[in-house]
Design a protein that fits this description.
heterodimer; A: about 1050 residues; alpha+beta; disordered C terminus; B: about 375 residues; five-stranded antiparallel β-sheet; 5 helices; 25 strands; about 40% strand
């Protein structure tokens, strides 16, 4: 079949060429339409249900909002996890679905289940968070002006800029934060209320009743119908002031202005935004719809910004701080540069090694053809073009087959003058002879990628796209090699003049001369190789491991954690201080700090959580630190060393957001404790913290604090309320009005809608003053609030986290100088001992450890599978055990190279490296295959073994060196890359480059001897006794 | 034989590779940088800081000392006049107001004339008094005459006795008529039928209910004169707080309209009755108002401190106490740079310092400022 294909191709060069042109054109079209993003999206399919419940404390939110919602969502089809965060005033329930679930299906399920949920009065309607993912936040901007107040800017953002951005296709939400949210406030004076004998409740009712429109049906007159309308919406401050509260005894009326000031004010803040250590700012974040093409969406948003800029009031400027376009651009640049450099290197190497530019060209043309296959599969499989998919393609792999074939042609036809017909036939003959090993070699590389498709979780989402793309590209290379390349070569390349001379020929001679010696020393060589392998393994094992190397996104997010009790004012001061410290670093171009949450909450975070977005200069200009990890360390020490009460972890925009979404812990081990009783949970978590601190190898331990939210609790005292005739509602309305304000309606300014709130502030913002607020009684005589409620100051629950409907607290541990597995085993024993047998406390061990464990278990299946695939393919190729074993032996030896490479460059073990090793296993076989099939071919032609080995090996030196050089050098730019995403590519490419070099050396130096021994004709019985287990025939 | 050897080597290589991979995949944690470079760290539960950190965090300390804690109670109420220092002036007759001499705010000495009222009633009374005087004089003469005649034996003893009785009756009638005229406020100096209203005490005219020409009834309250140097504050104290207020306690009063203004006072009386509707008892405070900071009827708040509810206890500044994991905690300085959080039981406070009933010893040093920065370290 292969031979037929090759012959068919060589006899129709022009048809093949035009077919190929069509394919390349298709590939171009596929490339343009491919969704592009910077990184693969590792977040899960999830639906977050956000419910606002102003004024409720964390425990109350949990009981009255989170419980019912969780109960409704529990057991949704295809869901795998249910977790929630309840915080003062906000409940966020997240339902995670199985990977691959359609997000719209998931939302539909959630919505249907939410329909029957009954929530307490005062809680808002449960809303689903926007359909977005970890890659969703594509753009962040700041609205600034010298001539406008923060409130004006915020209003402009909310009502002019954001709606226009939401119109843009692919934008799902624009979240606004900072500045002052405009509100019409009716600030009642308790004195005046008393003087006019008006209660807060009466005033609230008066305002509510004064602000409405009604419809009264219609009246017919003659043939026409007139709609009857009642129009009574309050339109201005003046109108609010003149709302009648009650009739006066003397026939006049008490108006709102008699008892209150009506003013435009700022809603009670839940968060604050600061910029560059200078002051507050107003910011917006554009969120992209899940599955959109971020390149296109960002471009459309950019165009819309241009339109918006033209319509802004004079003086208002929009600064874009974060733009995914930068990262996508950098990513594409990295990919493009790696690819271009790869192609260039491959072409040069081929031209030098093969001595034919035209031949090299014919080989390189295979790259776009292979890529067309890859792109087609990416489209079909829904793989986004990013660093992991496009970025990890090695053109060296793609051109291996054609190189071997080209070499065969060179060897067979050099120096012969031929007519076209003859040329086709001769080329075809030469190429068909190597077609089978080439096809098998490439097929093996394709197949080793297949087991990688079974990776799960985060690692699956990162590396599956790569495996799919690479396998598809290699399949394309296979097709190109056997179906297109022969024809292309016939069309492009005349028979080479000579196949000798130059460096390679001298090398070939030298190699041939020393081969007999190598063959005779094979035992020593094998032992040496094994020894080296063991040494390399041991050395590498000391390098440690990390799960997935961090991909540098170009910008940083400095996440600040503080004690949960911090006030917003103090947090703001500290944020500004942090930003000033950051500004001293030359690497920092600008910073924007966001503390707490926006008034319309999307994230369940409190004042203790600050994310400072830091725009960094290009790494080439850095002076303080060499790389991002070092810079992170500098930022951490500087900030923590100079700003009090501020604990920093440095992350990156996408990384941070993704971790938030998958609720991932970056700690090595994170111990989740489950219990129903919060106090129990608090106690147990500190006990567990103390226990693991004692385990040797423990670095830092962080026990999640559930308590720590200072609160003033007003508990209704029923007895005294009864004595005074106070309704609980009246008493608590006073509390609500003191700070947050009673919602009494909305005011419209055109299409803009603002809250109208009734406030009755205390004389001063102290607990005492709260107690002195007056509550109306049913007898009309006011009593102080402190008389009917018990005011207690204390430390309350800041946040309640639940997982699978159980309350949970987390203990995060980072290790120092000990391996995860043994540490966890010991810690588990200690913790079990501490908790005692049959403890009601649930314990779950997770964190990076969990990911690592999962990946390890999966790899422990994948690695044998890969080895079996390689072995099986080799056996299929040769139909005999011994040559297969000989070639297979190269696999572990080329791993030695990969290991040494990692040791030399000082990289720890990581998943990309594992993937590199797996790919290496496939590639390493290629050279062995070429050598062995040549030797076998010679043997079958009746050459004596020694000669066949020596001549055969010498004969294939050129293609072996060429493919090795091409594959290794093709990956070299990636191994040295410093661009975006290079962190993932470097270990992978390092393994492959070093592995191939070493594997090739093994194939050339050790394999001949092994072959000579294994292939020595011997009595069949003897051979069978040698390896009985290897006797499949 | 050698072939066998090679196969064995190959297998050994494979096994080594598998073992190597296994070792690798077990994974190792990376070494994290040591934390010793930080300016502050938590060591054995204590926060250990550098001097630089102490400066930045603004850490100040205070000594635990035995002191008097006077718990404070906030009360509200209204001012009123001191009943011993207020008098009402009524018009005692029906009549018409002729002239008003003093208006609200005027200072008066005792006896100053406030207004004149012209009264027909008074006029009638005065006339009657004159008639009665004439009658009495006539009866006097008659009685005198009867005495003379009786001495001469010209009349009977009975006649004399009758004249004596008539005189006595007339005298009584005269004094009654005179008293009535006087009671009406007759001021003979001003003329017939004129009543003058006089200030019964020195003080300020605070109320006036008269205008010239106005008709007044005999029960009309015309003026109120009060001595504004002395005011009462009547506070409402709800049952719960009654035991905390005692006669003689010092307190500070501030008008609700001007919370910054403070006026000292003293509890003069704690009411013995709890009002059934108000559910509160009355507490009276005497205020020296010579500075005229308060007006009668004004709403005021009062902070009662000390008095008999005060206790002696170990105290720390209010800011020293914070909450960690639901427990009240103070940071005890073991040396200048080492603060150990310690759980304490907090008692009453007076707004500046709080009593600590458990957990501290006298003389220990605690962090009084910069507590949040230290607390933050525990949350690191």
């Amino acid at each position: 079949m292969l031979t037929w294909l090759v012959r068919w191709s060589t006899s129709r060069p022009w048809l093949v060429l035009s077919l190929q042109a069509v394919l390349i054109a298709v590939g171009g079209a596929l490339m343009v339409t491919l969704p592009i993003d910077a990184l693969p999206d590792v977040s899960t399919i999830q639906v977050s249900v956000l419910t606002r419940a102003p004024g409720l404390s964390a425990v109350e939110v949990e009981r009255s909002v989170t419980f019912p919602i969780e109960a409704a969502l529990n057991g949704s089809p295809r869901s795998v996890e249910l977790r929630s965060v309840s915080r003062g005033g906000l409940s966020a329930v997240t339902l995670v679905f199985r990977d691959g679930t359609d997000v719209w299906f998931a939302r539909q399920v959630a919505l249907e289940r939410l329909r029957g949920v009954e929530l307490p009065e005062g809680a808002g309607v449960p809303e689903l968070a926007p359909v977005s993912s970890g890659l969703g936040e594509i753009l962040q901007f700041v609205v600034r002006s010298d001539q406008h107040t923060p409130m004006q800017l915020r209003t402009l953002l909310d009502w002019t800029i954001a709606p226009k951005l939401r119109e843009v296709a692919g934008v799902v939400e624009v979240n606004a934060m900072g500045g002052d949210l405009k509100q019409l406030q009716v600030v009642a004076s308790h004195e005046k209320l008393r003087a006019n004998d008006v209660t807060l409740g009466t005033l609230a009712d008066a305002l509510r009743d004064a602000n409405l429109s009604v419809g009264g049906g219609y009246i017919e007159r003659g043939d026409e119908a007139f709609t009857v309308r009642g129009q009574g919406l309050l339109a201005s401050r003046g109108e609010v002031e003149h709302v009648v509260v009650r009739a006066d005894t003397s026939g006049g009326a008490v108006l709102v202005k008699h008892v209150a000031e009506v003013e435009v004010g700022s809603a009670l803040r839940q968060g604050v935004v600061t910029r560059d250590g200078k002051g507050e700012a107003v910011t917006g974040v554009v969120m992209m719809l899940l599955g959109e093409n971020s390149r296109d969406v960002v471009n459309r948003v950019g165009a819309r910004f241009e339109e918006i800029r033209g319509t802004l009031p004079p003086g208002v400027k929009i600064d874009v701080l974060y733009d995914r376009k930068d990262l996508v651009g950098r990513t594409l640049a990295t990919v493009g540069r790696n690819l271009a450099e790869g192609v260039l290197v491959v072409t040069i190497v081929l031209a030098v090694f093969l001595g034919t530019l035209r031949g090299a060209l014919a080989v390189v043309i295979g790259v776009p053809v292979s890529m067309t296959f890859a792109l087609a599969v990416m489209h079909l499989a829904g793989v986004t073009g990013d660093l992991m998919s496009l970025g990890a393609i090695d053109f060296g792999f793609l051109v291996d087959g054609p190189v071997v074939m080209l070499e065969a042609v060179g060897a067979a036809c050099a120096g012969r003058a031929m007519r076209p017909k003859e040329k086709s036939a001769a080329y075809g003959e030469a190429m068909a002879s190597v077609g089978r090993p080439v096809a098998f070699a490439i097929a093996i590389i394709v197949l080793v990628y297949v087991p990688l498709l079974t990776l799960e979780g985060v690692e699956g989402k990162m590396f599956r796209p790569m495996a799919i793309t690479m396998a598809a590209a290699l399949f394309g290379a296979l097709v190109y090699a056997v179906a297109f390349f022969p024809g292309v070569l016939v069309a492009l390349m005349p028979p080479p003049k000579a196949h000798t001379g130059g460096l390679l020929s001298r090398l070939e001679h030298a190699y041939a001369a020393r081969l007999p010696w190598l063959v005779s020393r094979s035992a020593a060589l094998v032992v040496g190789s094994v020894a080296l392998l063991i040494a390399a393994s041991v050395a590498f094992a000391r390098q440690g491991a990390e799960f997935v190397p961090r991909i540098f996104e170009g910008d940083a997010v400095v996440t600040v954690r503080r004690a949960p009790s911090i006030g917003l004012t103090r947090a703001r001061e500290l944020d500004l201080e942090v930003e000033r410290v950051l500004a001293e670093l030359p690497e920092v171009k600008s910073s924007l700090g966001m503390t707490g949450r926006a008034e319309v909450a999307v994230d369940p975070v409190g004042n203790d959580n600050t994310d400072i977005f830091v725009h960094l200069a290009h790494p080439s200009t850095w002076t303080t630190a060499r790389d991002f990890d070092a810079l992170s360390e500098v930022i951490k020490t500087r900030v923590e060393g100079r700003v009090v009460g501020t604990f920093v972890s440095v992350s990156q925009p996408i990384e941070d957001r993704t971790n938030e979404l998958i609720s991932g812990s970056r700690a090595d081990v994170s111990i989740n404790l489950f219990a129903d009783d919060l106090n129990e949970l608090v106690k147990v978590s500190s006990r567990v913290g103390a226990v693991v601190r004692r385990v040797p190898g423990t670095g830092d331990v962080r026990v999640e604090r559930l308590l720590g939210q200072p609160e003033i609790t007003a508990t209704a005292n029923r007895a005294r309320m009864a004595r005074h005739g106070v309704r609980v509602r009246d008493a608590f309305d006073v509390l609500v009005a003191s700070r947050e304000g009673l919602h009494v309606g909305s005011i419209y300014e055109g299409e803009r809608r603002f809250d109208m709130r009734l406030l009755g502030p205390p004389v001063e913002a102290t607990p005492d003053a709260l107690g002195n607020l007056f509550v109306e009684t049913t007898t009309g005589r006011p009593v102080p609030l402190s008389e009917v409620v018990d005011l207690k100051e204390g430390d309350g629950v800041g946040v309640v986290r639940r997982q699978m409907r159980k309350r949970t607290a987390r203990v995060d541990v980072n290790l120092r100088g000990r391996d995860l597995v043994s540490w966890v085993a010991e810690a588990q024993r200690e913790v079990d001992k501490e908790l005692g047998p049959g403890s009601p406390i649930g314990v779950e061990w997770g964190g990076q450890f969990e990911n690592f464990e999962r990946a390890r278990r999966r790899l422990s299946l994948i690695v044998p599978a890969v080895l079996v695939v390689i072995g099986g393919m080799l056996f299929m190729m040769f139909g005999r055990v011994r040559p297969a074993v000989a070639v297979f032996a190269i696999v572990p030896f080329s791993l030695t190279g990969g290991l040494l490479g990692m040791v030399i460059r000082g990289y720890p073990f990581s998943l990309p490296a594992a993937v590199g090793f797996i790919a290496l296993g496939g590639v390493a076989v290629l050279n062995g295959l070429v050598v062995t099939s040549e030797v076998l071919g010679r043997l079958s032609r009746g050459e004596p073994l020694e000669r066949a080995v020596v001549d055969g090996c010498a004969h294939v030196l050129r293609p072996v060196l060429t493919t090795a050089a091409v594959a290794a050098l093709g990956f070299a730019p990636m191994a040295l890359s410093q661009g975006a995403g290079a962190e993932v590519q470097r270990p992978l490419a390092t393994v492959v480059v070093f592995g191939i070099v070493f594997g090739t050396a093994t194939a050339l130096l050790v394999l001949p001897g092994v072959l000579a021994r294994l292939l020595r004709p011997a009595p069949a019985a003897d051979a069978d006794e040698t390896d009985p287990q290897e006797e499949p025939t | 034989m050698k072939r066998r050897w090679v196969v064995a080597a190959v297998l050994a290589g494979g096994v080594t590779a598998a073992v190597g991979a296994g070792v690798l995949l077990r994974g190792r944690a990376q070494a994290a940088p040591p934390a010793a470079t930080l300016p502050v760290r938590v060591e054995g539960g204590a926060v250990v800081m550098s001097t630089g950190f102490r400066e930045r965090a603004g850490v100040r300390s205070a000594v635990v000392e035995r002191a008097r804690v006077e718990p404070t109670i906030r009360l509200v109420g209204a001012t009123t006049f001191d009943p011993e220092n207020v008098s009402a002036v009524g018009s005692r007759v029906r009549g018409f107001v002729r002239k008003v001499f003093k208006v609200e705010g005027d200072w008066v000495e005792k006896g100053d004339i406030l207004a004149e009222i012209e009264s027909a009633e008074l006029g009638a009374a005065q006339s009657e008094a004159r008639v009665m005087r004439a009658h009495r004089k006539a009866a006097e003469l008659n009685a005198h005459r009867e005495h003379e005649l009786a001495k001469k034996g010209l009349t009977t003893a009975r006649e004399v006795e009758l004249a004596e009785a008539a005189l006595e009756e007339r005298t009584a009638q005269e004094s009654e008529a005179q008293l009535r005229a006087r009671t009406y406020g007759a001021d003979r100096a001003r003329g017939h039928g004129i009543v003058t209203l006089k200030a019964p005490m020195r003080g300020t005219v605070v109320e006036r209910h008269l205008a010239a020409g106005q008709a007044v009834q005999d029960s009309h309250l015309a003026f109120r004169v009060a001595d504004l140097d002395h005011l009462w504050v009547e506070l409402e104290v709800f049952e719960r707080e009654l035991p905390l207020v005692h006669e003689g306690d010092q307190l500070v009063v501030s008008p609700l309209s001007a919370p910054g203004l403070t006026i000292p006072g003293r509890v003069a009386y704690v009411g013995g009755v709890v009002d059934a509707t108000k559910k509160s008892a009355e507490v009276r405070v005497e205020i020296d108002n010579r500075a005229r900071k308060l007006r009668s009827g004004q709403s005021v708040s009062a902070v009662v401190s000390g008095g008999k509810a005060a206790i002696e206890a170990l105290t720390v500044p209010k800011g020293a106490v914070t909450y960690v994991d639901g427990q009240a905690v103070v940071f005890v300085l073991e040396d200048d740079l080492r603060a150990q959080p310690r759980q304490v039981t907090v008692g009453v406070g007076d707004g500046v310092k709080v009593a600590v009933t458990e957990g501290l010893k006298e003389g220990e040093r605690v962090v009084s400022e910069g507590v949040f920065a230290l607390k933050s370290e525990l949350y690191r």
